[in-house]
Amino acid sequence: MADAFTERRTLPAPLQPMPGFEHVRRYFDPNQNCTVVKVLPGEIYVSTQEEQVGTVLGSCVSACIHDPVRGVGGMNHFMLPAPADGAGDNWAAGSGRIARYGSDAMEQLINAVLKAGGKRPDLQVKVFGGGRVLPQMSDVGRRNIEFVRRYIAQAHLQLLAEDLGDVYPRQVQFHPHSGLVRVRKLRRRDDVALVAGEYDYLKRLVMRG
User: Fold this and answer.
1) Which of 41, 154, 147 minimizes the C-alpha distance to 99?
2) Which pLDDT tens digit goes with each residue over 62-76?
3) What is the model's pLDDT at position 148?
4) H or E segment at 105?
5) CB atoms within 10 A of CB 203
6) I need a labelling partner for 208 at 20 to 30 A (CA). Which of 8, 69, 123, 191 fits?
């Protein structure tokens, strides 16, 4: 019989990401029996596998884009709609802007889903976030909501669902292969701390703009 004190449980390795997404944090969650991927502000992630992609949103917005025919999907997490006019971005030039702005994040996510095998006529979009979590930055969430709705309409994308606005942070869990999304509003005081890092950085972006 194995020694209960010396036996170690070996967890399965996380699923391997598609090329280009190796930097996104991932781990195997034994409680959910799947690979969990954490999308941070300014990141996008696309997959065709049975895994869970998650993020936490305050005034930021995430779009989950899914092709139900081919089982490919992805998520972004952007902080502002676009750089302010004339904000030259030494920061943006140095970082390549990644996907911190909605104008970049939506285009990059759509292109990545198409590159992974999705077809534009079949894309379905679900959007989340834009909460008024910090009163001193009350218009940021509203601007993000206005942007993402306008972008979806102008791009002639199919908006399947949205959970936007209100005053709470949100935790979003997205399954890119099936398109299933779960959203939980974070109402406890301790939960608000989960978005503290996002807002520290967001305030610096707003000041730059």
Assistant:
1) 41
2) 999 999 999 999 999
3) 98
4) helix 102-115
5) 14
6) 191
Q: Which tokens hold the place of 37?
A: 């991927």
144, 102 contact by CB (below 8 A):
yes
Determine how many CB atoms are found less than 10 A away from the CB of residue 195.
23
- Measured over the CA atoms of residue 77, residue 159, residue 164 and residue 92, the dihedral's sign is positive
Contacts of 123 (CB under 8 A, 6+ apart): 65, 66, 67, 110, 113, 157, 158
In this predicted model, what pLDDT tens digit does every residue of 176-195 receive, in sequence order? 999 999 999 987 665 556 56
**Residue 138 CB-half CA count within 13 A:** 4
How far apart, in whole angstroms, are the C-alpha atoms of residue 24 and residue 40? 8
The ranges assigned to domains in the chain are: 25-208
Burial of 38 (0-12, 13-18, 19+ CB in 10 A): middle
**Fold assignment, 25-208:** 60s Ribosomal Protein L30; Chain: A; (3.30.1330)
pLDDT at residue 168 is higher than 70: yes
What is the rounded distance in angstroms from the CA atom of residue 153 to the CA atom of residue 42?
A: 23
Closest-CA residue to 103 (of 56, 40, 152, 55): 152
pLDDT at residue 209 is higher than 80: no
